[in-house]
Amino acid sequence: MTNSWVNWAGDQQCTPAVLATPHSVDELADLLGSAGTAGYTVRVAGTGHSFTDAVLTDGMLLNLARLNRVLDVDRTSGLVRVEAGITLNAASTALHEHGLAFPNLGDIDGQTVAGATATATHGTGATLPNLSAAVHSVELMSADGSRIELNEHSDPDGWRAARVSVGALGVVTAVTLRMVPSFVLEGIERPIPVADVLADLDSFVDGNEHFEFYMFAHSPLAMTKRNNRVSRPERPRAEPIDWFADILLSNYVFDALCKLSRRQPRLVPWIHRGAAYAGSYRRRVNRSYRVFASPRLLRFTEMEYAIPREHSADAIREIKALAAGFDTPMPIEVRWVAPDDAFLSPAGGRETCYIAVHQYRGMDFEPYFRACESVFDRYQGRPHWGKRHFQTAATLRERYPEWDRFAEVRRRFDPEGRFANAYLDRVLGPVS
User: Fold this and answer.
1) How confident is the model at residue 432, as a pLDDT?
2) Which 8-state DSSP code applies to residue 167?
3) Distance, CA of 32 to CA of 40 (rounded, Å)
4) CB–CB of 25/36 below 8 Å?
């Protein structure tokens, strides 16, 4: 019997020699010891929401789904200790009972905390950095099974490297996160012409705590979403209304239209215009994590780049115009985040605009994504570590001012390359 693993999108898979799900950190240490004896490289898979080959290995692949507990909660300081395998949704639900919440989340919350932070997963908000910036400390297990706690005092460089590490330093077993008091968001979705949004972009981005929009190449409309805190109590919508909007229309109907476009590409412009009008005028008032995240049932692959915020409007116009030349039924997503100081954060040291492009499953993504990447390259774009790109260590090094400091930490924690694979060798370079 062989072990096999496949990601959420279904387009990355591997057959490791050992596929293991430890129940405890002691069992994890034993597994790492056996990997060393057998000469296996080791990678860790979260819930598979990465679109890259970041976790693929023919050695040992670890699943930390059973290391999923909330270990400690300090409501006064907002510091929360969780095991690495807990998902963002499970953590959010559990911590709400303690009156705490993540300050920001993306639109998918099925990822593990360790996987989301390791790849610099983010939400949107000009004053809010990505999720890894909430990491107060990291517990890291080395190849020999020993554990070390990294924070800005015990090991400043190690901490700045471990917050966004792409799994290159060892196995993250637990993290301490700095949370905020629970809050209620009012989410308003409204179609606005793309031209109007870009003409007054700073007002939209700075005038809301969280602003983002989707657009289609063949539609003049931007489907804007504004999330802002309110002092009112949460008012969940009726379940049938949520199901109709979030499941039926946004997933099942759009999935059917994408399947149709795969067979009949000439219908893409019509699908774009219809989808843009259908996703209009919605309002929600609910606890933060329920407004941030939405169900994602249809499968696709994705590329996302972080560019300096000052180039937002120009890059958005270029990508929209370029996308019209390709057969993709999928939207373009645009978000903003604040700078942070993790060595490999795509938003490190600069106010950032994220632009994401997508391709539906089974449709050729590479020509479209390569064309988009050529645009992002002109703006010194940095790829999201969990999404498709065609960069190498040689092309990325100059885009990260602290690249060499991360490499030094990596040599210190994994000198033999036990946690390397083909992806890391390609995008970070060999350990030595």
Assistant:
1) 77
2) T
3) 9
4) no
Label the pairing between strands 352-360 and 13-14.
unpaired
Q: What span, in angstroms and rounded, lies between the C-alpha atoms of 93 and 104?
A: 14
Per the CB < 8 A criterion, the answer to whether 294 and 5 are in contact is: no
CA distance 99 to 57: 40
- Spatial neighbors of 248 by CB under 8 A, at least 6 apart, are none
Going by C-alpha positions, the residue among 90, 429, 130, 175 that lies closest to residue 304 is 130
Rounded CA-CA distance 3/356 in Å is: 33
- Between CA 78 and CA 367 the distance in angstroms is 46
Are 420 and 176 in contact by the 8 Å Cβ rule? The answer is no
Helical H runs in 295-391? 312-323, 366-378
Cα torsion for 152, 400, 124, 133, to the nearest 10°? -10
pLDDT value at residue 2: 67
What confidence score (pLDDT) does residue 280 get?
65
Instruction: Return the pLDDT at 1.
Output: 45
Q: Which two tokens stand for residue 58?
A: 């023919």
Q: Is 99 left (phi over 0), alpha (psi -120 to 50) or beta?
A: left
Question: So what's the pLDDT on residue 241?
Answer: 76
* Weakly modelled stretches of the chain, pLDDT under 50: 1
Asked if residue 82 lies in contact with residue 98, where contact means CB atoms within 8 angstroms, the answer is no
Structure tokens at 399: 């885009």
Domain annotation for the chain: domains and CATH numbers: 70-181 (3.30.465.10), 184-383 (3.40.462.10)
Q: Using CA atoms, how far apart are residues 247 and 286, in angstroms rounded to an integer?
A: 18
What are 53's two structure tokens? Answer: 């080959």
Instruction: Report the predicted TM-score, pTM, of the whole model to 2 decimal places.
Output: 0.96
Confidence at residue 377, expressed as pLDDT on a 0 to 100 scale: 98
